[in-house]
Amino acid sequence: MADARRPLVAANWKMHKTREESRRFWDAFSARLTPESTDRVEVVLCPPYPSLPVLAEAGLEERGVFLGAQNVHDAPRGAFTGEVSVPMLQDVGCRFVIVGHSERRIHFGESDDMIARKVRAVLEGGMTPILCVGESLEQREAGRAEAVVIGQLEAALAGLDAAGVSRTVVAYEPVWAIGTGRSADPGDAGRTGALLRRYVAERYGEEAAARVRILYGGSVNPDNFGAFLAEPEVDGALVGTASLDPETFAALVEEAARREIRAGRGGGDIR
Ligand code: PGA
């Protein structure tokens, strides 16, 4: 199982934490991190823009943790007041960028087209997009959940080749589960993961499908994460609320590492 997908646990802090609060989080979180976990699990912190350099300078990569942004503009530079580009994110040490989060789609009018351009720009910049897809409650109740998530995936991947798709991380985040304390049923998340992977297999081939990582997001916490991780199609989580507390987020990372240890995976490259 040398090429098993590496699990990924990503913190989406949204519009939370000043620079000082970010520093305090890192001190507490890094004190709890063990190489046994970071050798098996990819851990990503996505703070607000001002805290990116703070965390980079705190040396998070030396501890096996990666930096991500919550958004990006697809142009490298230009007259786009308020926006931040791929080269700027590279410059502060970002490796990941969340793209198309439902809050961006809903509150900032991000279209499928914009999201596709951002995914391409992030990949071209050598970073990893964490592409969010997910249906609203109305869409789910109308029986359209599958069509919506596949439609969002198809639109966002448009124009990519199999190699680009393999490097993309897809986060299935039902809108009604985000920040509500009401997570999806793990079995449903697993079935949606399987659906997304099948789409990738049909369009981009089996190898891309075997490589693309699929996360679940929406009210993940230490009590329910184990059930999501038990789903073979779920490769980790994008975590909002439960990522704001260092102890809670560290517990999620450990949970993912335990799954790998139980499966006898990872840890061969302990530094
Ligand atoms: P939540 O947010 O964990 O607070 O539900 C998840 C997300 O929006 O990525």
Main pleated sheet: 8 strands, parallel, barrel
Ligands present: 2-phosphoglycolic acid
Q: What top-tier CATH class fits best? A: Alpha Beta
In CATH, the topology is named: TIM Barrel
Mean pLDDT: 96
Round the Cα radius of gyration to an integer and report it: 17 Å
First and last CA, distance: 20 Å
Which percent range describes the beta-strand content? Answer: 5-15%
As residue ranges, the low-confidence spans are none
Task: Domain count, please report it.
Answer: 1
Annotated CATH homologous superfamily: Aldolase class I
| Topology as a string of helices (H) and strands (E) | EHHEHEHEHHEHHHEHHEHEH
Detail the topology: elements first, then pairings:
Layout lengths: L7 E5 L6 H14 L2 H4 L3 E5 L5 H6 L7 E5 L16 H6 L2 E6 L2 H6 L4 H13 L3 E6 L3 H5 L3 H13 L4 H6 L1 E4 L13 H19 L1 H6 L1 E5 L7 H5 L6 E4 L6 H17 L9
Parallel strand pairs: 1-2, 1-8, 2-3, 3-4, 4-5, 5-6, 6-7, 7-8
Helix pairs in contact: 1-13, 6-8, 8-10
The structure holds 2-phosphoglycolic acid.
Account of the protein in words:
By secondary structure, this protein is of the alpha/beta class. It has a single domain (3-262), classed as TIM Barrel, CATH 3.20.20.70. The protein is built from 13 helices and 8 strands. The chain has helices at 19-32, 35-38, 52-57, 86-91, 102-107, 112-124, 137-141, 145-157, 162-167, 186-204, 206-211, 225-229, 246-262; strands spanning 8-12, 42-46, 65-69, 94-99, 128-133, 169-172, 213-217, 236-239. The chain has an 8-stranded parallel beta barrel, surrounded by 4 helices. It is globular and about 45 Å long. The site of 2-phosphoglycolic acid has 13 residues, from strand 8.
